[in-house]
Amino acid sequence: MYQFTRRYMGPLQAVIMDWAGTTVDFGSMAPIHAFRRLFEQNKTPITIAEARAPMGAEKREHIRQLCAMPRVREAWISAHGAEPTTADIDRMYEEFVPLQIDAIAQCGQLIPGLKDTLAWCRELGIAIGANTGYADRMIEGLLASAAEQGYSPDSNVCATDVPKGRPYPHMALKNAIELGVSDVAACVKIDDTLTGIDEGLSAGMWTIGVAVSGNEVGLTLDEWQALPEDQQQVHRRAAYQRFYQAGAHYVVDSIADVVPCLMEIQERLAAGDAP
């Protein structure tokens, strides 16, 4: 039996953001390039849609889920004469690491609007966290490149730094610990994948989905800007719907649009609202 409801009513303390598709790499292209190259090298080509389906998961788990897809599994059997084994997945993961590092190096540009969002957070004393399905050995170059462009999060957590990656809340909670957060309700998780929204919700945090810049639309900035407005709207509506169905508290086009949401979350926290 519970006799009272305990509510956090303080300020927003931390914003925790994904990397590819959220803060860098508009369209989240680096993982797609790497996964498609990996499976092509293993005589089992995959489509862009297949490569994107498990996005947000730790990368070895991503490979496992790809191998478990019925069409991919059948194609693998046709090419190799047997189903993919755990040993195959382990070997492919080791092959994937250098492919991913190369792809990250080519797709590490900051998403437009990130710096303005960071400046707003810094002005209010809001800590900045980052986490990713990438392994720690994949992102040394990314961290350096982002720093050169003006982005250095106060805490960075990789899927290999915790017992379980997304959709488990471990990464976001490790971020919160490293940032010194007093209550998870004072945190916002921003992500371009539905799995990342699951992570934030499971951690007890507010969540914001970025629908256009990341995995759900899956187009580079140039490709997006080249689309006629009516086609943009079709993609946008579908992505927004998927995020809201996944439980996101807010959905925006990109990191450039999150400050009004953060301001509203501040007001809701002050009024005693919880995620």
Describe this protein with a few key phrases:
6 strands, single chain, 275 residues, 48% helix, 12 helices, six-stranded parallel sheet, globular, alpha/beta
What can you tell me about this protein's structure?
- The chain is α/β, with parallel strands linked by helices and 275 residues long.
- The protein has helices at 29-41, 48-52, 59-68, 70-80, 86-106, 114-123, 140-148, 170-179, 194-202, 221-226, 229-245, 259-270, and strands spanning 14-18, 127-132, 155-158, 187-191, 206-210, 250-252.
- The model has no long low-confidence stretch (mean pLDDT 96).
- 48% of the residues lie in helices and 10% in strands.
- The protein has a six-stranded parallel β-sheet, sandwiched between helices.
- Helix 1 (29-41) packs across helix 5.
- Helix 7 links the parallel strand 2 (127-132) and strand 3.
- It contains twelve helices and six strands.
